[in-house]
Amino acid sequence: MASSECTVVSETRCFQGSVIKYEHRSETLNCTMRFNAYLPDTRCTLPVLYFLSGLTCTEDNFMQKAGALRYLSDRRIILICPDTSPRGVDVEGQDAADDLGTGAGFYVDATEPQWKDHYRMYSYVTEELPALVGRHLPVDKTRVSIMGHSMGGHGALVCALRNPGKYRSVSGFAAICNPSECPWGQKAFTAYMGDHRKAWADYDATALVKRYTGPALPILLDQGDQDPFLKKGQLLPERFIRAVEDNPEKQNLHLDNHMRPGFDHSYYFIQTFIEEHIQFHARHLLA
Amino acid sequence: MASSECTVVSETRCFQGSVIKYEHRSETLNCTMRFNAYLPDTRCTLPVLYFLSGLTCTEDNFMQKAGALRYLSDRRIILICPDTSPRGVDVEGQDAADDLGTGAGFYVDATEPQWKDHYRMYSYVTEELPALVGRHLPVDKTRVSIMGHSMGGHGALVCALRNPGKYRSVSGFAAICNPSECPWGQKAFTAYMGDHRKAWADYDATALVKRYTGPALPILLDQGDQDPFLKKGQLLPERFIRAVEDNPEKQNLHLDNHMRPGFDHSYYFIQTFIEEHIQFHARHLLA
């Protein structure tokens, strides 16, 4: 544990705890990264919840806009919000569009030459970041859950389904549930992994959930029925729900799925249902 | 009531209500303005709470970051968030700094030639906007309160103290309490009103509260003791508190004042105490 591996950029009081912004050199992404932690006041280890953000977001959006910190303070759960892509790197084409490159890492490990030296957000959020967090924050490493929004909902589902037992629960707001079959996912996966559908399946929640054989996994999904990206076929939650039914061991997949009338894709939607998500994770983290 | 005077830009579901963004032509400011409303689902009129934002903010900051909407939904109070200055106007020097001009209207009616055709945020928030809101939203015009943050805390106090009986309660987060005596206020007041200290006093809460003679006015102030602008002498809450004591009719000024250890000037501070502010206003609005 080198004390220089991770520096505190700022620390801000919120409820009975602090929002701490960290900066560190990432070996996985080969660049300098920032993440936010919410740390309730504590003298002992606490459970930890990861939140993965959506397209164009940074480590700040969820911290500032979700209204989650009150509930994490009450239930004494640490929150970790990583960024959504490598930053400050030099990759051709990474700033040409909102849905590829900067702010759009899609939580995959790229294999294409253009991207593979930096765009490895899957390994970053499942390995390097948790190890770093374990060295710098008082986390109970046996009590970890994960959630996300849109692209980050996809990321959370993939992390949980590929690592049985690593996360106690997973939840998504307006998650991209079947990226291999939607325009956003096809564009990103083609760029990052080439036209290798077999490789894509390892990062597709609908493909993964069909063949999940791990221990019991509680899953909570929330979706607004007025979400424009639902209507455009970017999210496809119905495919994921059907795939759960197709799993021969579906009794281990405890899916709680909500379609919310009138709600869209924004943080106003997240604000409204965040308490239910924190309660869901708290139930499994504190059990 | 011309139906074209005010158009709905967007409507977004949040809790048991909607965030509605309006656009309208302002006669007072001589430009097109936007404001946000949070409207709980209702078939009858509801009380209304105004929130005035701080330097550099727009009508969005409080809506997105304060975590207030849950409490307004529960208590069925309409929230109105105006912008912080005229927009899209052509005034020399208005974009030279964060603390003057665009995003920094300071809730005064400018009298200096350079500013007076547009920068009249005091009349806008106390007259034109409430009249417009009254025509387009189901507000109970006898139940109105006001609050704000930083420059907006100054604005809220000035609106309440200059209009006895118009607002049932007033509150501020990290309010600029004595603008005539702080660098931010002196710069803005000199620009907008010239070097006329007598005119300044009409927009200075500390000067106004000394000579307030209206009906009982409940005032709630919250301040973080780690606020960098407190340390720099921009906020001066102690002057306001002393001035309340100096008022011969101080029994009508019901001041509840909190210094919060460890908190700064940010929306993380506001998030933490917003429930107490909504409860305070609800007590007076729903009485």
TrEMBL record, chains A, B:
Keyword flag Nuclease: no
Membrane-crossing residue ranges in chain numbering: none
GO BP terms, alphabetized:
formaldehyde catabolic process
Q: Which PANTHER family match?
A: S-FORMYLGLUTATHIONE HYDROLASE (PTHR10061)
Origin species: Tieghemiomyces parasiticus
The record's EC number reads: 3.1.2.12
Q: What main location does UniProt list?
A: cytoplasm
Q: Where can this protein be found? A: Cytoplasm
Q: Which reaction does it catalyse?
A: S-formylglutathione + H2O = formate + glutathione + H(+)
Q: Enumerate the UniProt keywords alphabetically.
A: Cytoplasm, Hydrolase, Serine esterase
UniProt name for this protein? S-formylglutathione hydrolase
Q: Which family does it belong to?
A: Belongs to the esterase D family.
Q: Which Pfam families match?
A: Esterase
Q: Which InterPro entries match?
A: AB_hydrolase_fold, Esterase-like, S-formylglutathione_hydrol
UniProt cross-references to SUPFAM superfamilies, sorted A to Z: alpha/beta-Hydrolases
Which Gene3D superfamilies is this protein grouped with? alpha/beta hydrolase (3.40.50.1820)
Lineage, top-rank taxon, reads Eukaryota
**Keyword set includes Cytoplasm:** yes
Q: Name one GO cellular component term.
A: cytosol
Q: What biological function has been recorded for the protein in this entry?
A: Serine hydrolase involved in the detoxification of formaldehyde.
**What start and end residues bound the annotated signal peptide?**
none
What is an example of a GO molecular function annotated in this UniProt entry? carboxylic ester hydrolase activity
